[in-house]
Write a structure and sequence with these properties.
By secondary structure, this protein is an alpha+beta fold. The strands form 2 sheets. A 5-stranded antiparallel sheet has the order 1-2-3-5-4, with helices on one face. Strands 6-7 form a two-stranded parallel ribbon. α7 crosses α8. The model has no long low-confidence stretch (mean pLDDT 78).
Amino acid sequence: MHTTDLGGHSGCQILLCETEENLVFVRKISSNIEYNQRLIKQAEKQSLFNTPSIKTPKVLDRGYTKDGLFYFDMEYVQGITLAEYLKRIEVGKVRGLVEQIVNGINSLIVALGAPKQEKFIYHNRKELNVPLSLGLGASLDFEAGNVKRAPRWMSNCGLEWLYRIIQEPKRMFKRYFVDAVKIVPMIWKYRKEDI
């Protein structure tokens, strides 16, 4: 079997594979055993999304490597994914795509991740003319099982941010320790004098 490394993301390696019989497929492999459960869930959910209205590449095979890492193979679809497409095209093209979709609706949910989704909503609110726009953020990842929620006691104590920094330090550090600090001068400026 001939393989080409397509890179990967957050705990998973992606390979383009071709067998001697010229069968081409994509293989996703866990980078470590801790990621196995997450990838198993993804394979199960992807298998469910083959309905007349929603199509995803079919899951062809699944199993474990000799190192105990879970993998699943899915059909190769020529071209690029919607996520890759949206990363490559200019905002103007995204706006045009969204305008076609939202024509005549009264709410828009944007799931591009913070702060992209908030910026998209803010910069395009007048052109889209949608009365209600919401940034979904990590909610979609939580519901899909791609990102683990903080334990309930941490959420109840207002420490979910700490849990997320521990889980994704590279991505969350700037958000919580650089960007969030910018609000301190505003708090100081608008504090109540009679406290």
